[in-house]
């Protein structure tokens, strides 16, 4: 007897635990956010499935962003390791999840043509982005430097705290996640309009990585831990 | 019963790496050495914001069934018959005039287990600076949108809004045997594209 597994259940996004749509000092959040309410629909197989074997299309990169070559000079800044787990709402690991990340360098500069107005210097020894595949337990780990803060132009003295951008592919179109990870105890965190736009304080805290005590970490880098919880949970059994 | 709350979404910001939209990402007809099955189509359109302004560097991702309407995914009971040379996923970035472009396979029609057919369709999502959460919609293909039936249309009462989910034939953009279809995404304004709550 062969039947396909039961698809997970996906709840509509909870506005209390998600970031707000419109952010003061960020004009594009006003000019790009739709006016009309988003339409509810019943999900069919097409939304419950998603690409398998994405590594066939998206090349997986080095897990050490802090130097361009294995024997090369290290990038400027504080060497860190970011590690964590990709799981679903039941805590079950998402084996093989594809994780993309990108960040500013230690000076707060992106290696991107749109950041050319920045006064902060580029760093030729820094890679600035990466792509990894989570292992069978959903775990990932990479070495980088701690990103610097940077000012948001024409925003009235708003600075983005150090953060790393992530794009995560899970087992379905519904589980796709695009997020940012923040660093613990940064004085810029409470004033960050993007982080502060999450209404629920506990959800805000979960966007911040955990600092692993140095006694449990490594000798050569500070270690931060951060999990990604993708949407999707087992269905409640019918009574 | 779920025990963990999903991680919050945030905007990609202005600096999504250019090389993440790798050359070839927007061509779904070839993922390995062999070409996918089925007729090629071109899918192109503009992503526009308030007042019809072009959005440069909007990231457009698509997900679709193969030429027979199958998904190479464990949840598809017929997934083992799906085309092994078709990944079904692609990514493009809009240019300075707001244009994105894909070459792909015409998705097949499919009747699901509940007995209701989905029209040939391509799932589309947008991530962009200023969008705090991804936006999802569906591109439908039908000769006569007014007579077409698809479950995603159920929640959209307005006939004009329903028609915005249909790709339009654009013969001027045809490339050899590949028929071209146009699908513009209006983020905001009177002609706003319907987006889904999921
Ligand atoms: Fe950023």
Topology:
The complex is a heterodimer of chains A (239) and B (198).
Chain A: H1 28-31, H2 45-48, E1 79-87, E2 98-103, E3 129-133, E4 139-145, E5 150-151, E6 159-160, E7 163-169, E8 177-182, H3 201-206, E9 210-211, E10 222-225, E11 228-229
Parallel strand pairs in A: 1-10, 1-11
Antiparallel strand pairs in A: 1-4, 2-3, 2-7, 5-6, 7-8, 9-10
Chain B: E1 40-48, E2 59-63, E3 89-93, E4 99-105, E5 110-111, E6 117-118, E7 121-127, E8 135-140, H1 159-163, E9 168-169, E10 179-182, E11 185-186
Parallel strand pairs in B: 1-10, 1-11
Antiparallel strand pairs in B: 1-4, 2-3, 2-7, 5-6, 7-8, 9-10
Bound molecules: fe (ii) ion.
Please count the beta strands of chain B (DSSP E, at least 2 residues each).
Answer: 11
* Uncertain parts of chain B: none
Tell me the radius of gyration of chain B. 17 Å
Task: Give the helices and strands of chain B as they follow along the chain.
Answer: EEEEEEEEHEEE
Oligomer: heterodimer
Beta-strand level of the residues of chain B, as a percent range? Answer: 25-35%
Largest sheet of chain A: 5 strands, mixed
Mean pLDDT score of chain B: 94
Largest interface by residue count?
A-B, 91 and 78 residues
Strand content of chain A: 15-25%
CATH topology of chain A: Protocatechuate 3,4-Dioxygenase, subunit A
Query: Can you count the helices of chain A?
Result: 3
Q: Structurally, how many domains make up the residues of chain A?
A: 1
- What is the CATH C level class of chain A, in words? Mainly Beta
- Estimate the helix proportion of chain A, in percent: under 10%
Q: Could you give me the name of the CATH homologous superfamily of chain A?
A: Aromatic compound dioxygenase
Kindly, what is the distance between the CA atoms of the first and last residues of chain B, rounded to a whole number of angstroms? 20 Å
**In this structure, how is the largest beta sheet of chain B organized?**
5 strands, mixed
Q: How many whole angstroms does the radius of gyration of chain A measure?
A: 19 Å
Q: Give the structural class of chain B.
A: mainly beta
How many strands in all of chain A? 11
């Amino acid at each position: 007897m062969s039947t396909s597994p039961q698809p997970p259940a996906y709840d509509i996004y909870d506005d209390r635990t998600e970031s707000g749509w419109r952010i003061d000092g960020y004009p594009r959040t006003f000019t790009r956010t739709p006016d009309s309410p988003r339409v509810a629909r019943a999900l069919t197989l097409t939304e419950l499935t998603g690409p398998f074997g994405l590594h066939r299309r998206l090349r997986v990169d080095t897990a050490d962003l802090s130097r361009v070559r294995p024997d090369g000079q290290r990038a400027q800044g504080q060497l860190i390791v970011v590690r964590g787990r990709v799981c679903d709402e039941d805590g079950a690991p998402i084996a093989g999840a594809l994780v993309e990340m990108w960040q500013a360098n230690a000076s707060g500069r992106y290696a991107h043509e749109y950041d050319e107005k920045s006064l902060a210097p580029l760093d030729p020894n820094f890679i600035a982005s990466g792509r990894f595949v989570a292992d069978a337990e959903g775990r990932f780990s990479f070495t980088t430097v701690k990103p610097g803060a940077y000012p948001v132009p024409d925003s009235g003295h708003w600075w983005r705290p150090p953060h790393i951008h992530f794009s995560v592919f899970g087992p379905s179109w519904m589980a796709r996640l695009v997020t940012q990870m923040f660093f613990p105890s940064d004085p810029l965190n409470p004033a960050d309009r993007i982080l502060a736009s999450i209404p629920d304080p506990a959800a805000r805290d979960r966007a911040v990585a955990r600092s692993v005590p140095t006694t449990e970490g490594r000798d050569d880098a500070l270690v931060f831990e951060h999990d990604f919880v993708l949407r999707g949970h087992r269905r409640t059994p019918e009574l | 019963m779920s025990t963990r709350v999903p991680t919050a979404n945030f905007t990609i910001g202005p600096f999504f790496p250019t090389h993440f939209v790798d050359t070839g990402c927007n061509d779904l007809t070839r993922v390995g050495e062999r070409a996918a099955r089925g007729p090629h189509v071109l899918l192109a359109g503009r992503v526009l914001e308030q007042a019809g302004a072009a959005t440069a560097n909007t990231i457009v991702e698509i997900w679709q069934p193969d030429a027979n309407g199958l998904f190479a995914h464990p949840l598809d009971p017929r997934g083992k018959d799906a085309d092994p040379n078709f990944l079904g996923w692609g990514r493009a970035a809009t240019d300075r005039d707001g244009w994105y472009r894909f070459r792909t396979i015409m998705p097949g029609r499919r009747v699901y287990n509940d007995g209701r057919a989905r029209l040939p369709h391509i799932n589309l999502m947008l991530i962009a600076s200023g969008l705090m959460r991804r936006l999802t919609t569906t591109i439908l293909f039908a000769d006569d949108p007014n007579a077409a039936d698809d479950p995603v249309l159920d929640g959209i009462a307005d006939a004009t809004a329903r028609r915005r989910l249909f790709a339009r034939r654009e013969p001027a953009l045809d490339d050899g045997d590949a028929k071209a279809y146009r699908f513009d995404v209006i983020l905001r304004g009177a002609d706003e594209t319907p987006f889904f709550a999921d």
